[in-house]
Write a structure and sequence with these properties.
By secondary structure, the protein is an alpha/beta fold. It has a single domain, classed as Stationary-phase Survival Protein Sure Homolog, Chain: A. The chain is built from 6 helices and 11 strands.
């Protein structure tokens, strides 16, 4: 298969390097990723500035790689339009930090995969915890390879993203794989005033991340030592109350 690999941590991030090292053994891959860190950019795209694309050399990889001055979604758009003739599947990651529950709304990693489905290309987003050791990324890469095979065999639809999270534990300790719904992640955000700048009023974002481990959710199973897979779709319609809201009006 021809795979387009992207991420939101930047083209030189260790997660994308380890992922590509594993996948290029089995597939024809092209790497198109942001030139620098673009975490939490969600699905933003660049519309007022030109995109700068440079071919880069990634040591230890034989596949072609390109850096893009824009966002993860930009990377997919420019790759499909200008860089790669044909893409069978887009793989986004391996992200440095889980994308569980409602965090997927902020995630540049997941949004790059969603952008692929808007281009009618099936996609997989993959993440592991931010403090993960090297073996966690290697585990994640191997699981992604298997998930690609299963998804391809079963005809993953071109409007579906498989959101994958891999726990930061040794392979022997991973209990298996669970397909599940997303859970709930809350952030108690607050801003702290920074008085070091005498010319401007400056606030810096702080906060605490709280994960609710409801049963049968991704956050629940990842905490139990499972790899989680959640199918996502860009249609955010709440069908459960669609008819009720229609009555209101």
């Amino acid at each position: 298969m021809r795979l387009l690999i992207t991420n939101d941590d930047g083209v030189h991030a260790k997660g994308i390097h380890i992922l590509c090292k594993e996948l290029e053994k089995y597939h024809d891959i092209v790497i198109v990723a942001p030139s620098d860190q673009r975490s939490a950019t969600s699905h933003s795209i660049t519309i007022r500035e030109p995109l700068i694309v440079n071919e880069v050399e990634l040591p230890g990889l034989k596949s072609k790689a390109y850096s893009v001055s824009g966002t993860p979604a930009d990377c997919v758009r420019i790759a499909v339009d200008q860089i790669v003739d044909k893409v069978d599947m887009v793989i986004s990651g391996i992200n440095i930090g889980y994308n569980l529950g409602t965090d997927i709304l902020y995630s540049g990693t997941v949004s790059a995969a969603v952008e692929a489905t808007l281009c009618d290309i099936p996609a997989i987003a993959v993440s592991t915890e931010w403090h993960a050791e090297l073996y966690s990324y290697e585990n994640a890469a191997k699981y992604v390879r298997k998930i690609i095979e299963v998804a391809d065999t079963n005809g993953l639809q071109d409007d579906i993203v498989l959101n994958v999270n891999v726990p930061p534990i040794e392979k022997k300790d991973i209990k298996g794989l669970k397909v599940c719904r997303i859970g709930k992640v809350q952030h108690s955000h607050y801003y702290v005033k920074d008085d070091s700048d005498k010319e401007n009023v400056v606030y810096r974002l702080e906060g605490v991340r709280k994960v609710e481990h409801d049963e049968e959710t991704d956050s629940y199973y990842i905490d139990k030592g499972y790899v989680t897979v959640t199918p996502l779709h860009y249609d955010l319609t709440n069908f459960g109350i669609l008819n009720e809201v229609e009555v209101w009006f």
